[in-house]
Write a structure and sequence with these properties.
398 residues, alpha/beta, seven-stranded parallel beta sheet, six-stranded parallel beta sheet, 20% strand
Length: 398
């Protein structure tokens, strides 16, 4: 609480002009109503908005509302100056994709009404409704908005909808409209800029600093995976690699945090292995931090990513990354220097990188963890908000 109050006062003093801004955020973040009647949404996005609300006049978050139970990974809004405006959900597989356009008239009407009283707009892409929201913003708002593109900007196999949105951003947006993406890529327009996704607050940093120094070599080695449980994220490849992991002299524990339709099949496969493998399902942020604090390594062999927040989180808590070499990940993780890159994404390559990681000495591990902890500063909310103020809203400190 003390840190929070201090940061509120700090930002109020340094960026008074920013506090006058009324901001609208349009996203595809799923919202639910919990058993107590509170509105909750996807935890990482809601926490980011809660932090941004500290330094702005007001925020309206315009996003889909879903019936059903709120998952454990969801959060409620903590700032009083945030209003939530529900949209009709859309998308899915097959013919369900048509719902993107069937819900468009209602959603655009709600967005149009909400944007009348704001000073600045953030649209979070890529998402199905981006196919009509991006042209709408270009037509009516010109340079008043900022596009936060969270996907893999260089994915050669990206879905058609994502590809269309990327082409639109590259060719049809105003040069004054800021577009933030994961990673630095040559030959992009000047208004397309690299921007890290935040995931760490000052309490995380304090806890991480203590953990980095405290983690020792031990007889039990623990790994974690955090994300959706599916083949796209490489869970099948991890389990296949573990079949060949030599576990005679060392005990291994593998934590899988997340959920998905394939979880039951993965659990059946895991039971056939002579390893301790725990499927936790969705967890709240504090519970995930506890997993990081136990683990020596995070493993994430995704086929495609932007830059997963879980890598920044894990580095902060002393987990050495074993991750796929996709998108901009190699711009932060150097193979064999501060982690291990998986390329090609096969079970054989995953096993190879796991064994290389296990052969690190204590001093080598400590050196990597210290380096990564400093690097993780780029994924703090403080760093993120300062960049927004200086580079997006162009409000220099006084």
């Amino acid at each position: 609480m003390g840190v929070k109050i201090f940061m509120e006062k700090y930002y109020y003093r340094i960026y008074k002009d920013f506090r006058a801004l009324k901001i609208a955020i349009i996203s595809h973040t799923e919202h639910y109503r919990d058993s107590s009647g509170k509105i909750r949404g996807w935890g990482p996005t809601i926490k980011e908005i809660n932090k941004l609300a500290v330094v702005s006049n007001s925020i309206v978050h315009i996003a889909p509302f879903h019936n059903g139970n709120a998952p454990d990974s969801s959060l409620s809004y903590s700032a009083k100056n945030i209003n939530y405006l529900p949209l009709r959900p859309s998308g899915g597989k097959g013919l369900l994709k048509l719902s993107i356009f069937l819900t468009a008239p209602y959603n655009l009407y709600m967005i149009y009404k909400a944007l009348k009283s704001v000073d600045f707009i953030q649209f979070r892409a890529p998402t199905g409704m981006g196919l009509y929201v991006l042209p709408f913003l270009r037509l009516f708002y010109n340079s008043k908005y900022w596009i936060k593109y969270a996907g893999n900007w260089k994915d050669e196999k990206m879905p058609l909808g994502n590809k269309l949105q990327k082409k639109w951003l590259q060719n049809f947006t105003s040069k004054n409209t800021k577009i933030t993406i994961n990673g630095f890529w040559k030959n992009e327009r000047n208004n397309i800029i690299p921007f890290e996704n935040p995931c760490l607050d000052q309490n995380d940093r304090k806890l991480g600093r203590n953990l980095v120094a405290a983690k020792k070599l031990k007889k039990i080695v623990e790994f974690c995976f955090v994300g959706a449980l599916n083949n796209h994220k490489g869970v099948d490849k991890i389990l296949e690699a573990l079949k060949c992991l030599d576990s005679k002299d060392i005990k291994y524990i593998f934590h899988f945090v997340g959920d998905g339709p394939q979880r039951i099949d993965f659990e059946k496969t895991a039971k056939l292995l002579r390893l301790e493998i725990i499927f936790h399902g969705f967890l709240a942020k504090d519970a995930i931090s506890n997993i990081y604090s136990r683990c020596d390594f995070i493993i994430l062999p995704s086929k495609s990513e932007g830059f997963p927040k879980v890598i920044g989180e894990a580095m902060n808590f002393g987990c050495i990354p074993i991750v796929s070499d996709v998108s901009c990940i190699s711009q932060y993780i150097q193979d064999g220097i501060n982690g291990f890159l998986i390329k090609p994404i096969t079970s054989k390559e995953i096993l190879k990188k796991i064994n290389l990681a296990l052969n690190l000495t204590y001093s080598e591990r400590l050196k990597i963890k210290k380096y990564n902890f400093e690097l993780a500063e780029k994924f703090t909310y403080d760093y993120y908000i300062n960049r927004i103020m200086n580079e997006i809203f162009k409000l220099k400190s006084k």
